[in-house]
Design goal:
29% of the residues lie in helices and 23% in strands. It is an alpha/beta fold. The protein has a six-stranded mixed beta sheet with strand order 3-2-1-4-6-5, with helices on both faces.
Length: 136
Amino acid sequence: MLSVVFPSRGRPESLLRAVTSLARDPSRVEVVIGLDDDDPTRQQAEDLIGNIPGVRVLTCPRMMCQAAYYNHLAKQATHDWVGIFADDYTVDQEDWAEIMEVTLAALPGGYGYGYFHDPMYPLFATYPFMSKSKTK
């Protein structure tokens, strides 16, 4: 099973598009969203995505940087394989989770990473999935 984590601020409609593209199969995917406690659009974002199956919304103090936010959210993820994402991206393949699980299962000993194909940067792992158990 997979966890996808990302923070969002000030873009509730974009967040909704990103989350609905990811949360197609809650039996396979958990989506963990971090919202700043001082974000004026926080309540709107919570109202839009808070009842989507497989989605958890965490209200957090504003982090010092994006990396700190991703690390904080990854610690809250319940699955071993954690991917990062952004609120201005969407996943176009409906079976993306199945494809990602097959890719990650093929890694020797679980070492390595998988990532979404990003047409803007086709040879770069823009949003990777990594094993929490292999990074401790």
